[in-house]
Amino acid sequence: MTEAISPETVRARGSGTQSVYAALRAEILSMALSPGSPLDEVRLSERFGMSRTPIREALLRLSADGLVTTLPNRNTIVATIDFAELPTYFDALTLMYRVTTRAAASRRDAVQMAEIRRHQRAFAEAVEAHDAYGMIEANREFHVAIAVLGGNPYYVTFFSRLLDEGRRILRLYYSTFDDRLPRQYVDEHEAFIVAIEAGDVEECDRLAIAHAAQIVRQIQEYVARDMSKATAIQNL
């Protein structure tokens, strides 16, 4: 007869899975765990001080997110970055900049605008402090907050995932500035805020296109200039 599992045990395991998932996800997205890094269940179990079951469940969630890969020999590694897929990624990213910013300009919500401004202040402070991880996090939250103001939850979900997938590329890009991001990025965000508050849909669209084009161009130049580094990262 199978022994019953108590609700407390289920909750404890779920909590353990979530903590492992959150920690590894943050390390992968920030590049603290580089593409291709091995993720051994035994070592992770020792590191987090828990059984292999929540470790395995956390890795399954990360796999569903596209952040880890299980190899034919059943070893698990941090997913590599497929630079060949960048053009399609950039197409989707550009589209989401445009539709979310246009949608935000057509709505009015003082509370959500305050949230957008809060993330913009965090971004400006991170740029001033040369804090790359802070910049990446605040940039994500700034654009997600704009999507939330736009009012389409499907856009919010899709754009959030795109921005998460792009964190590793953005981290590599920021490193080309020695984490000293030009002030123009802060100014571009401010221009978004002004256009959204003015309800200027066409100006929002123009700014979104220019913002996306600049990021795409600079990342493409980085990859082309440092292809040996990019290839090394991809093939770890």
From TrEMBL:
InterPro entries: GntR_C (IPR011711), TF_FadR/GntR_C (IPR008920), Tscrpt_reg_HTH_GntR (IPR000524), WH-like_DNA-bd_sf (IPR036388), WH_DNA-bd_sf (IPR036390). SMART domains: FCD (SM00895), HTH_GNTR (SM00345). The keyword Transcription regulation applies. Keywords: DNA-binding, Transcription, Transcription regulation. It holds the Pfam family FCD. The keyword ATP-binding does not apply. CDD domains: WHTH_GntR. GO terms for molecular function: DNA binding; DNA-binding transcription factor activity. Residues 14-81 form the HTH gntR-type domain. This is GntR family transcriptional regulator.
